[in-house]
Specification:
single chain; alpha/beta; Nucleotidyltransferase, domain 5
Amino acid sequence: MFSICIINPGSTSTKVAVYYGAENSKPAEGSARNIKHDPDILEKRKNPIDQLNFRIKAVEDFLEEQKIETLDAVVGRGGLVKPVPAGSYKITESMIRDLKESKYGSHASNLGALIADLLGRRFNCPAFITDPVGVDEFEPLARYSGFPGMERKCQSHALNIRAAARRAADSLRTTMFDLNLIVVHLGGGISVAPLKKGRIVDVNNANDGGPFSPQRTGSLPTTQLVNLCFSGKYGSAEELNHILTKKSGLLGYIGTDDGIEITERIKKGDARTLEVFEAMAYQISKEIGAMAAVLKGKADMIILTGGMAHPPLTEWIEEATKWIAPVKVYPGENEMSALAEAGLRYLSGIEELKDY
């Protein structure tokens, strides 16, 4: 029986769990905790890398409390690493350097590999990441933006996208490498990805384009955005980027990004909330149509997953897109179980670790 520690850092908390599993089985959760961090400390240390020490201490305290004395592997959520193909990666000095320097972007998920590496050294076991945000399997045509020198970048919710693809393939008694799928991650950011025989060959970067989401603008009218940048309304690119990625979308239009609150407002007859929520579904559906064109209409299934994958949003999207392919809904982010499954695939000899 293998024991696998999972580390998943978020903006305000760190999820940690220990999973157990044997060959040819699904890993089962043994103990878990979502460790909430002091908002005042987070505010003082806005750079996630500056939060490493107190986050690792909290994780170590949890493992000691649970009397965890041995581990067979530690798997961390993969953050903003350099562009790499999908898969599981050894945590190397170059990866640690890239993450500490925020070379490819700053995000709490960058701490996943750093914490996993420290735990791996403590427990003398392998430590790695799997399907990081930086997964890049774009085909050449997908990189063109229309403006020379500005290339479209592949960043997505790859971990949950590929976990949902595996789950759908299991339901069809095949593998994702035998299917063409369109997977939609519905969370604070939204990723709509066509998977061609298991490869994420295109995707809207949730910070740069695609549908608007609970907090992000998605694609914007170019000339209006340029005019806004030079209007003097915002003092810096950093300030405006914060508005575009943290304070826009549903939050900007209706003052909330809470799905439960939005549903309650709609039930009470709030016409404005209903229209904005339907508009988000409209844009998601359009993006699904675009990704169907990437697959030349040959999609076996559309998969809706993530924390927002619930009615009425999923029902509206299905109504608009079911003519493309059957729609399957897998609610929730499923990141912890996806990391645990990666750990078990490695320990069972099914998947090898790649070099970064």
